[in-house]
Amino acid sequence: MPRFFLIKIIILVGLVFALTLSPARADLTFQFDYSHDTRNFFVNHPQAKVLLEKAAQFYGVLIQDNLDAIVPNDATPSDFWVIGASDPTDPANFQSDFSLYNPTMPANTLLVFAGGTNNLASGTLGYTSMFGLAGGEGPISGWTDTFETRGQTGALAAPGIQTDLGPSGGTISFNENINWFFANNPDTDVVPAGQYDFYSYALEEIGRILGAGIANPWFNLNINDVCIGPAAKLANAGVFPAFSGNRWAANAMSTVFGTKTVQAPLFNFRPVTGVRKLVTTLDLAVLADMGWQIANPVPLTGNVSVTAVAGKAVTFFVSPDGNGPFTYQWQLSVGGGAFTNLAEGNSNSGTATAKLTIPTTDRSTLGTGDRFRCIISSAAGNVTSGIALLSVQVPPKVTVEPDGFTAIPGQTVTLSANLDALGTKPYNFQWRKGGTMLPNETKPTLTLKKLTLNDENRYSVTVYNAGGVTTSLEAELFVTSTPYVNVSPSNITVAAGKPATFTVAAIGSAPLTYQWQSSIDGGGTFANLTEGGGITGTKTSRLLVTTSKGSTDDNGNVYRCWVINAAGYELSENGILTVVLPPSITPAATNLTAFPGDSANLTVNATGGGTLSYQWQRSPNGTAWTNLTDGNGISGSATSLLSLSTPTTTYFRCVATNSVGSTTTGKILLTVNYHPGGIYFGTFAGAKGAGKFAALVQVSQVAVLFGFDTTHKNAFTFADFSLADDGTFSISDGGGSAVTGTFTPSTAKVVSSVTGTVNGRVTSSPLKGTHKTDAGKYSVNAGYYSGSYSGSASGTIQAIIASDGSLILYSVSNDPNDEGDGGTATLAATGNFSVSTVKGVKMNGTFDFVNNTITGTYKTPQKTTGTFSLSLEIGP
Question: Do residues 721 and 702 make contact, with C-beta atoms less than 8 angstroms apart?
Answer without folding.
Answer: yes
